[in-house]
Amino acid sequence: MRRGSGLVLGLALSLLMPSACQNCPHGCPATEAGATLVVTTSPAKAVSGVQAILTGPVVGTMSCQPNFSAILCSWPNGVPFTPGTYSLQVSAPGYPTTTIQVEVGISSPGCGCTVGSISPSTISLGSADAATD
Fold first, then answer.
1. Domains along the chain?
2. pTM score, two decimals?
3. Are the C-beta atoms of residues 25 and 35 closer than 8 Å to each other?
């Protein structure tokens, strides 16, 4: 091997290394983790006034916004992202309130990134007409 070819190979590998760190979701997110919940309705439509309350290691009301035919709810502002088991209560005008247990977790896909998750990450609300006592 020629003396200069080792240097070229080293430079080529160093240029490839940063690209491996670009596989983090959305680049590297901010230092605070968060998670998103999708609320769907039957029939499918975006509904205003959805409220999602998490009760567990920390308590907070998620910020929910209509998004096409679903609703996206984000981790509560100002509430530290804390892994654990939570009770999630979701309510919306015209739909029965639904309460389920969810797991909140943090994973590290690499590159120093942290990603939060809620599982299950989707909850469906049936119409009040379909509710049974």
1. 29-130 (2.60.40.10)
2. 0.69
3. no
